[in-house]
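## tool: complex_structure
## caller: assistant
## args:
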Amino acid sequence: MPERIGRYTLRLPSRPLISGYAAVVGKKEGEGPLSEEFDYIYSDTTMGEQSWEKAESAMLRDVATRAINKAGKSPSDLDFILGGDLLNQCIGTTYGIRSLEIPYFGLFGACSTMAESLALGGILTDSGASGVCLAITSSHFCSAERQFRFPLEYGGQRPPSSQWTVSGSGGAIITNYGSGPRIDMVTIGKIMDYGIKDANNMGAAMAPAAADTIQTFLRDTNSQPSDYEMILTGDLGAIGSELLLELLSKNNVDIEGQHNDCGLMIYDLNKQDVNSGGSGCGCSATIICSYILKRLKNKELKNVLFVGTGALMSPTSIQQGESVPGIAHAVLLSAE
Amino acid sequence: MPERIGRYTLRLPSRPLISGYAAVVGKKEGEGPLSEEFDYIYSDTTMGEQSWEKAESAMLRDVATRAINKAGKSPSDLDFILGGDLLNQCIGTTYGIRSLEIPYFGLFGACSTMAESLALGGILTDSGASGVCLAITSSHFCSAERQFRFPLEYGGQRPPSSQWTVSGSGGAIITNYGSGPRIDMVTIGKIMDYGIKDANNMGAAMAPAAADTIQTFLRDTNSQPSDYEMILTGDLGAIGSELLLELLSKNNVDIEGQHNDCGLMIYDLNKQDVNSGGSGCGCSATIICSYILKRLKNKELKNVLFVGTGALMSPTSIQQGESVPGIAHAVLLSAE
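## result:
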């Protein structure tokens, strides 16, 4: 049963494990520094579908199938799917998993969805409510651009602070038996809003939430940044990451030696024309469900504090002059 | 700790209770048959705000405050908020709860959100992960119309099968100590898609999911419809309710004596020009968090099987020729 540590953190004494995981990406992500890590790289952005939204669902369906297979399970073995995505009404996930006939908790955490679904999956597993569940999410550059910004055909300029939505999907099977990386602790974040109104500067909008959740986690667990091999935010990008370190250092918390960001890992920022880095639910999902879990599984990494960040705005709220509320959830992943 | 009954149902042995609840509605809902039940009836659709989206957030914020107060708590006592709504990226909830500084699980279940949040809140409470949490959702006729259908100014005709999105918000505080109605069991639903492509006939699209979840619950618990005083779907409306009874009777399940639907309860269908009835996250939320919980609390009702239904489509998926996937979650609420 989950056990409260400090005010906001839950320790999961049964140490739920990830018995299977998969990540697929689009062409651009497949040309980045992590190209060797993914299960599959699609050669174009349509994934053989008639629309970008259907392409996103196709990626997510592909990942669900791969993760379930890699865990040695079939869909009927699963108790729950925990998932969601950036598309209006989370249709990437709905249509992606529609045919699987698995009880579904729909989540909305914007780019923090992978952390939210892993955290919830860990809690449900630790409490015995779930035997086997799938945490999953996706994003697609083209479906996100036309929904959140401009039609691609318009060829809008992207400011230096903007981030590039990852085309990709990642999913992980969480269970209590077998072997695999563990989910040891989770901290669910509070909404933080520092008044950033520029929807092209999501990193800045999300950095305060990441800072708050990291400090909460360290305080609750009475631990130091150096207790973790990696503190991995997803996805603050270049500008947000710099702000995060600055916000933390004002409170005498120094994570510079441990910090990395999924938005900085997935692309080569010098060569791939992605401005401030990657973003989108698929960004941290594809990195966690490939590079990170692989290295935790083979014990190259001992533990990773994954801090998934999300910007909970919509084009409508921005048009109405609202600022961008951020959220960040922390999940402590450990080698077995 | 939650205990699995049959394949898909969880029994919550600690019987989490609802220690406070609140519901506020707009003018039209306040003119309906349940007008005496609500905590507050707004006299116009703007709720004093500059936009309908901000009005929806204002209602939700109002309900959060009322529910927390009625439970004798303050925001800092809460471990989690579990919520979401129909607006793109769930901004009704995000901006509504932004100032409360409570850890937030964002959910997306369309009109099933109240059932999803009560179910999850019950599980988290039963497992000890949560001490006090708030399950909450909202919808607003005007923000939903312009997002899902037409600008109101256009004056589009509404087909007889269409439902009227409720302007309202409902919220419930779930905890393990004190007194109040209980959450005894939950069944999380699977996505069901019978190929309905008419976004103006949501009741028909959701009826198969409601039928599936009700049958699953009865099978898992080895119980009969007559074991429940009320089987309350939300929100199938007139057409969906008829289809539900038909689908169930084909499998020799007769719930006619117990069945009611939130979409039929909230308006006077003969007088209020709402065609097939009410819908929207706020429909079942305001009825559960007023009429139903009040009667469970004073023991006028013994138990209610609440089956929240949602249509997981978006305007984009419909424009792309997709059918409407439905989902339904069951929550067994009992008098103390």
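## assistant note: Residues 202-221 of chain B form the longest helix (20 residues). Chain B touches chain A through 61 residues (CB under 8 Å). Handing back to user.
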